[in-house]
Write a structure and sequence with these properties.
About 0% of the residues lie in helices and about 50% in strands. By secondary structure, the protein is mainly beta. It has a single domain, classed as Jelly Rolls (Sandwich), CATH 2.60.120.10. This is Cupin domain-containing protein. It holds the Pfam family Cupin_2. It comes from Colwellia demingiae.
Length: about 100
């Protein structure tokens, strides 16, 4: 048994990306952020659909069309494949724990 909130360091100089489950058609990933945002290299343009929920903290996702969505604890979002987006803000006071399901 594991706990989604286990092994979160008090200092997070970099985001943590951890695969929890990987199958041929599904990937479940835990992401832990503390003030980090998407890389400066540009927009995410993923070949998979992504369903994401914030379990603690908060994050702000911006789409290429300018729409911004703030996700707080319990909020979830479905991002379609190739829907360009990025994370522009995460909580700097506490760890933001995301659960992402790629399908």
């Amino acid at each position: 048994m594991e706990n989604i909130f286990s092994n979160i360091p008090s200092e997070l100089p970099n985001e943590i990306f951890e695969d929890i489950i990987i199958t041929e058609k599904l990937r479940v990933e835990r992401i832990v952020s503390k003030g980090q945002t998407s890389p400066d290299s540009g927009w995410y343009d993923q070949s998979e659909n992504e369903w994401v929920i914030v379990l603690s903290g908060y994050g702000v996702i911006e789409y290429i069309n300018g729409i911004k969505i703030t996700l707080k604890q319990g909020d979830y979002l479905n991002i379609q494949a190739h829907e360009k987006h990025r994370v522009i803000e995460t909580s700097s006071d506490e760890a933001t724990v995301w659960l992402a399901i790629f399908y």
